[in-house]
């Protein structure tokens, strides 16, 4: 509705128009005064409700994270068990455990072995330098040869292990400084192959998706073997009063490691048969 107001109808306290203006429904009622207490109490109640809902969401997210972590732990355990059942990983675990004994401790025992044969401090320091320099070159050569894809990685490592084993097993023929130089060169060039070739061989055996778990298993086994191998080598030195039995033991471990690695084609065929037998059963389980 439209309504015109004259000057006489302007609401003032004295002319009585104000009361009629207040009671007139066409104009609506006057605005009520805001109750500040009620407003603040409602805002506080809303804040507490929002805090409660946030706590609920946080607790739900934490429970979901715990469930997902538990599921990951179960999957990791299943993956470790399934990897340990693979014949190729079992074979290489055996190879690495025995091969790392001779390849690691040979660097340590060459120096005292040379001292027992009357080498001076200068000559011993030269032997150590030659061994480490050849070790650096040998590891690089292993990578270059493996990158050419001429020979399989496992074959390269097997040859290196056997050459290192023969080098250590001939310890009774070393006496002069030149013979020890030959020992340092041969050992340095071939002993480090097991450490530089292991990552690529593990990928070849179990695949890149299982590399992290498989490599962790191998390193764990190496720690156990290295912890038990050092006291045994020292015990042989103390009993026989010579480093030759220790060198023979390291050579035997390397020969066993290299010969086992040469059986890789047979082990791979066995693993392929196991996977072919297990695949139909998995398909039946998935279809059910």
Automatic annotation (TrEMBL):
Keywords: Membrane, Transmembrane, Transmembrane helix. GO terms for molecular function: monocarboxylic acid transmembrane transporter activity. Gene3D superfamilies: MFS general substrate transporter like domains. Its main location: membrane. The keyword Phosphoprotein does not apply. It comes from the Eukaryota. Residues 83-288 form the Major facilitator superfamily (MFS) profile domain. It holds the Pfam family MFS_1. The keyword Iron does not apply. GO terms for cellular component: membrane. InterPro entries: MFS (IPR011701), MFS_dom (IPR020846), MFS_trans_sf (IPR036259), Proton-linked_MCT (IPR050327). It is found in: Membrane. The chain crosses the membrane at residues 91-112, 124-144, 156-175, 181-202, 214-235, 247-267. It is a multi-pass membrane protein. This is Major facilitator superfamily (MFS) profile domain-containing protein. It comes from Magallana gigas (Pacific oyster).
């Amino acid at each position: 509705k439209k309504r015109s107001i004259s000057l006489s109808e302007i609401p003032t306290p004295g002319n009585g128009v104000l009361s009629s203006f207040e009671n007139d429904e066409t104009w609506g009622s006057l605005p009520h005064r805001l109750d500040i207490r009620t407003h603040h109490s409602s805002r506080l109640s809303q804040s507490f409700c929002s805090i409660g809902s946030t706590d609920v969401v946080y607790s739900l997210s934490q429970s979901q994270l715990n469930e997902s972590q538990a599921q990951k732990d179960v999957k990791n355990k299943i993956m470790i068990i399934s990897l340990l059942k693979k014949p190729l990983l079992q074979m290489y675990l055996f190879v690495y455990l025995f091969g790392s004994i001779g390849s690691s401790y040979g660097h340590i025992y060459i120096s005292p072995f040379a001292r027992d044969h009357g080498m001076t401090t200068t000559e011993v320091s030269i032997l150590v330098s030659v061994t480490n320099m050849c070790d650096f070159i040998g590891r690089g050569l292993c990578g270059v040869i493996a990158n050419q894809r001429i020979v399989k990685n496992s074959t390269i490592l097997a040859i290196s292990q056997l050459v290192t084993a023969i080098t250590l097993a001939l310890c009774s023929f070393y006496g002069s400084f030149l013979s020890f130089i030959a020992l340092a060169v041969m050992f340095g060039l071939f002993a480090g192959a097991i450490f530089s070739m292991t990552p690529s061989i593990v990928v070849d055996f179990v695949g890149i998706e299982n590399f992290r778990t498989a490599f962790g298993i191998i390193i764990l086994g190496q720690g156990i073997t290295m912890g038990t191998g050092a006291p045994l080598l020292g015990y042989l030195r103390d009993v026989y009063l010579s480093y030759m039995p220790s060198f023979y033991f390291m050579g035997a471990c390397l020969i066993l490691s290299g010969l086992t690695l040469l059986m890789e084609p047979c082990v791979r065929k066995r693993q392929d048969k196991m996977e072919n037998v297990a695949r139909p059963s998995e398909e039946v389980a998935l279809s059910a």
